[in-house]
Design goal:
- The chain is α/β, with parallel strands linked by helices.
- Helices cover about 40% and strands about 15% of the residues.
- The radius of gyration is 13 Å and the shape is globular.
Length: about 140
């Protein structure tokens, strides 16, 4: 099944936040180093700093220390899954911007991600859609 941009996830986000591209920070929480590298390659021109971790617990710790503007979060990771980590991050900061990037095309997981506070849910096979999502928020390339 092909997943496309889901405006129902992003309706609460102010596009003006993307006019400050040079100052934006990204956290990639993904247990596969290969996928982290791929995501960095896709979006590195949009962010001045990119932080990485391979599990949900480290994502919480890095988020608390670095306060990134955006988080790309996998679901299935060691120590703590991405939906639980997303929920805890949103509890700490309701304005946090989390995009779930996963292999699991599952309606229950989509609903859980949205309920946890994720602003979108993108399949890894469609990771180029991340750029489309960022462009929806007026990031200059």
């Amino acid at each position: 099944m092909h997943f496309s941009y889901s405006p129902e996830f992003t309706s609460h986000i102010n596009p003006a936040i993307f006019n400050q591209r040079k100052k934006m920070k990204l956290l990639i929480a993904e247990d596969s180093e290969k996928i982290r590298t791929m995501l960095k390659d896709i979006v590195s021109i949009y962010f001045s700093e990119i932080y990485e971790c391979d599990n949900g617990e480290d994502a919480l710790e890095l988020y608390s220390r670095k306060k990134p503007d955006w988080i790309f979060m996998d679901i299935k990771m060691p120590k703590m899954d991405g939906i639980s980590a997303t929920k805890k991050i949103i509890e700490e900061n309701p304005d946090a911007k989390v995009i779930i990037v996963t292999n699991y095309d599952n309606e229950t997981l989509r609903r859980n991600a949205k309920e946890a506070g994720a602003i979108n849910y993108i399949l890894k096979e469609n990771s180029n859609q991340i750029v489309d999502l960022l462009k929806q928020f007026n990031i200059d390339t």
